[in-house]
Amino acid sequence: MSDAPRKDPATLRSARWFAPDDLRSSGHRSRTMQMGYAPEEWMGKPIIAILNTWSDANPCHAHFKHRVEDVKRGILQAGGFPLELPALSLSESYVKPTTMLYRNMLAMEAEELLRSHPVDGAVLMGGCDKTTPGLVMGALSMGLPMIYLPAGPMLRGNYRGQYLGSGSDAWKFWDDRRAGLMSAQEWTEAEGGIARSYGHCMTMGTASTMTAIAEAMGLTLPGASSIPAPDANHIRMASAVGRRIVEMVHEDLTPNRIVTAAAVGNAVAVAMATGCSTNAVVHLVAMARRAGVPLTLDDLDAASRHVPVLANIRPTGTQYLMEDFYYAGGLRALMAKMGDKLDLTAMTVSGQPLGDTLAGARCYNDDVIRGLDNPIYREGSLAVLKGNLAPDGAVIKPAACDPRFHRHEGPALVFDSYPEMKAAVEDEDLDITPDHVMVLRGAGPQGGPGMPEWGMLPMPKALLKQGHRDMLRLSDARMSGTSYGACVLHVAPESHVGGPLALLRTGDIVRLDLPARRLDMLVDEAELARRRAAWTPPAAKTGRGYGWMFARHVAQADSGADFDFLTTDFGPPVAEPDI
Ligand code: FES
Ligand code: MG
After folding, report:
1. Domain match, 162 and 240 both
2. Which residue ranges have their beta carbon within 6 Å of ligand 1?
3. Is the same domain home to 291 and 143?
4. What is the mean pLDDT of residues 105-123?
5. What is the CATH number of the domain that holds 474?
6. Is residue 561 included in any domain, yes or no?
7. What is the extent of the structural domain holding 141?
8. Which atom of ligand 1 is nearest to 205's Cα?
9. Quick one: DSSP state of residue 59?
10. Are 454 and 440 in contact (CB under 8 A)?
11. What residue intervals traverse the membrane (predicted)?
């Protein structure tokens, strides 16, 4: 410790609040003493914000109520002073219409909490889907030294001796229940077995994908994202995070030295190799742009052709869950197998380049974490489609859908609202064939609003009864990272703003050509022009409040669905507050 860099206390950001011999600073000191702290406990020390997304409504973060004490322990040990600041919890399970409506709100909150408080660095505690991108986006924009503490996955589900995966098995069982293959009693038993500890979803859903991305970007301690939430290693990691952030403040290790183009490239490559959630697309673009790295859908598609899926984790993989991934060596083992797909010179919060943090990483199960010569899927997890239905792009997860849909042509069955679609899929006499393309629109960033996870449209009962379990589905919505099936998502521009999806009619032929990355409706230009001339924009969804602001400022899915006024190049940098 003795030769470690130490900042002159007078140069700490928090000194602006506490050091001056004036009335305002006296108030800050007096109010800190009001909380029971003597001046020597904080004066001249790095003050560390802990942005904690714990709440009673977020089972994925239930342990954060206590785990934050381990972070504080680490901060105190290293000579810092912790300030826990609660932030929006964004529980994927409860928040409607979708947490995505509030990701940018959390990003704004994270940025402004850090800006407005007397802090020198930050620990970000998140994990449930949108909390990772929300916290990281905000903290990137603020620019203080920061480190991400992932919640960790929950234990594997267990039902009648089978391992259950979050989300994925619920969808599967629900189709069985609707097909009359599962009783109400069995269903209740499965409900009690699928989520049986705190921690985030333990499939390679959005949560596991985004925490892996945070680690690959260099924002977590090495290996942190794979540790199951209830494992004692997670507690030790939390205190190590506390110790490390204090050192980062002394080293001035700010996120602009970490989240570079190289780090973003690593995050994209790791996303592909994990068999990531489709949601990763929107969040990666948004996070990269906050760091000033102009990532596009084309970059993601190029990476997908170049990096195979190595993690054999459901839903893309066949068998395993995050707990197995951890025991097999976790993300460090996976990255060690990625060879030249990663830029090992990228800096990390540990103060070491990525390559050094992977030294000694070993894989203990080559079936769970595959090598480049034996991948789960020879291309990456996602493909980006373009065509007259999606001029700005759409996303599909080829590895998670039946390959017979990779090239498909069929008549559209179009729904303009979720309730309308829901009623139709329950109709046992619905006039539909397995070749049909089910379409839901009005579910994009503005239409949803917030791009709800409606994109894995339920299979129509009429087809389930005939034994069909997949069909081509198309929407401007997102889908849960734990979903699967031939679902084309994130169609941009969305129908609500007049994207060509708005012009599609039931009976039109839709053509998907995945190898060519094309998505088209076979309707001629003159007819489309007629339909466009007759199209009228739908009414705004919200007339006041946050939803009103959201609709005016949210970008389309292909540019990350951030708010226009939050992007890095919007206006001059925000000045430090006057004190
Ligand atoms: Fe929180 Fe899935 S519900 S991660
Ligand atoms: Mg999810």
Report:
1. no
2. 60, 92-93, 128-129, 166, 200-201, 205, 207
3. yes
4. 98
5. 3.50.30.80
6. no
7. 7-154+196-356
8. 2
9. G
10. yes
11. none
